[in-house]
Design brief:
This protein has a single domain (8-224), classed as 3-Layer(aba) Sandwich (Rossmann fold), CATH 3.40.50. It has a seven-stranded parallel beta sheet with strand order 3-2-1-4-5-6-7, sandwiched between helices. It is 46% helix and 15% strand. The mean pLDDT is 94. Strand 2 (32-37), helix 2 and strand 3 (59-62) form a beta-alpha-beta unit. Helix 1 packs across helix 7 and helix 4 (105-133) runs parallel beside helix 6 (154-174). With 226 residues, it is α/β, with parallel strands linked by helices.
Length: 226
C-alpha cells in the first residue's frame, strides 16, 4: 500500500508542469486525485496518464482558482463524489515580468489573484471538511523570490511573500484541528513558465512526503528541494 492509500488529494494547476507531476506521484502513492485547472484539455491529458498508470479515474474539474464560486463548487463536487478531502496542493500560478513602473494595475491584480488569492480561496473552501474529519494536509508552492525579490518580477515576488505569511497563519489557526500547512520551494523547474531547470518529477517525492505527514509533524514551515 502507498503512503497516500485511500486519501483524496486536490491539485490546482494540474494540467501541466509540477501540477501534473505531483498528480502522477500522488496517484502512484495510492491517492484518488482531483485535477483542477482552467484548461480542460490539459487536465484530461493528465487524467489519461493517471488512468494508464493506476487504472483509477481522476476527478477532472474545470475551475478558475480566482473565482470564489467556482472554487466553492469544485470543493462541493469533490465532497459529493468522495465525501472527504485530505490533501490540497496549491500549485496554480502565473509568472509575468514587470517592474513597479512598468506593471499595470490590471497585470498586478492578475498575478496577485492567481498566486495569492487563489490559495486563500481554496484553503478556505476545504477547511470545513478537513476540520470535520480532523485531518488535512495543505501544501503551498513558494519561491525564493518571496524573500529575495527580483527586479522585474514585482507582483510574483510580492504574491509569494504573502503566501508564506498566509501559510504560517493558517498553520497556527488549524493545528488544533489536525491540519498541517506547509510551504515547498522546488527551485527552478522546467515547465511552461520556465524553459530551463529540473524536471518537475524530481521534486515530487518531497511533496508526497509533506502530503503524508503524520500528526505532530512540521507545520507552518518551508521545505526546499535539496
Amino acid at each position: 500500500m502507498g503512503v497516500l492509500e485511500g486519501r483524496i488529494a486536490m491539485i490546482s494547476g494540474a494540467g501541466s508542469g509540477l501540477g501534473r507531476a505531483a498528480a502522477i506521484a500522488f496517484a502512484d502513492a495510492g491517492a484518488n486525485v482531483v485535477l483542477l485547472g482552467r484548461r480542460i484539455d490539459k487536465l484530461e491529458e493528465t487524467a489519461a496518464l493517471l488512468a494508464q498508470r493506476t487504472g483509477r479515474p481522476a476527478l477532472v474539474l474545470s475551475s478558475d482558482v480566482t473565482d470564489e464560486q467556482q472554487v466553492s463548487d469544485s470543493v462541493e463536487a469533490v465532497l459529493q463524489h468522495w465525501g472527504r478531502i485530505d490533501v490540497l496542493l496549491n500549485n496554480a500560478a502565473v509568472l509575468e515580468q514587470g517592474s513597479v513602473l512598468e506593471l499595470t494595475s490590471e497585470e498586478w491584480q492578475n498575478q496577485i489573484a492567481t498566486n495569492l488569492t487563489g490559495p486563500f480561496l481554496l484553503t478556505k473552501a476545504v477547511l470545513p471538511a478537513m476540520r470535520k474529519q480532523r485531518y488535512g494536509r495543505i501544501i503551498n508552492i513558494t519561491s525564493s523570490l518571496s524573500r529575495n525579490g527580483a527586479g522585474g518580477f514585482v507582483a510574483y515576488s510580492a504574491a509569494k511573500a504573502g503566501l508564506e505569511s498566509l501559510t504560517r497563519t493558517v498553520a497556527d489557526e488549524e493545528h488544533e484541528h489536525g491540519i498541517l500547512v506547509n510551504l515547498y520551494n522546488p527551485g527552478t523547474l522546467r515547465t511552461e513558465m520556465h524553459a530551463t531547470g529540473k524536471d518537475p518529477s524530481i521534486v515530487t517525492p518531497d511533496i508526497v512526503r509533506l502530503a503524508s505527514l503524520s500528526f505532530g509533524g512540521p507545520t507552518g514551515t518551508i521545505h526546499s528541494y535539496g
